[in-house]
User: What shape does this take?
Amino acid sequence: MTETRKPGAMMGEKVKKAREKMGWSLQDLAHETGYPVDVLQSVEDNSIVPPVALVLQLSRTLKFNMEEAETADGKKAAASRTKSHKKRVASYAYTPLTEAGARNHLRAYLVTIDAGTEHQGVEYKHEGEEFIYVLKGGLVISVGANVTVLGKGDSIHFNSGLHHKLSNPNQEPANLLVTIYTP
Assistant: This one.
């Protein structure tokens, strides 16, 4: 079954259009965001659903709200975004809990990390701060050179400008409340 979308409705198309409007190559965008060209190409090709950190970095770098509706029917677009964000990204899934907006600097997400998974792909890094509270299960988080093990009821607050990655070595999925502040 093929999914029909309006032009510009998919994240990758928005990224490519904004990048080209700025006159940048994928290599230029890679230098501005810190993400590898192959990851950015996968976003533009819509072959991956980008993780939250990458969406935030692209929004900031390309100077627009990635989650903003481009269609006349805002409710339909919002439902589509929510459904898209509930999709799996590597070994985890996330659902936004707060509204996106140019004036909103604080975003909250419900994140589920599968049991027995290691972080895959690039490490995350984005301007601002991040707070993670473990609702269920546990996780291992690396922030820079520091590694912290968290269990149910534990939390961590850190500078999200540092490279960070999450993994869940436990036998049960981890449910997290993740709050991100971007200046």
About this structure: The two ends are 41 Å apart (CA to CA). DSSP finds five helices and nine strands in the chain. The longest helix spans residues 74-85. Confidence is low (pLDDT under 50) at residues 1-9, 69-87.
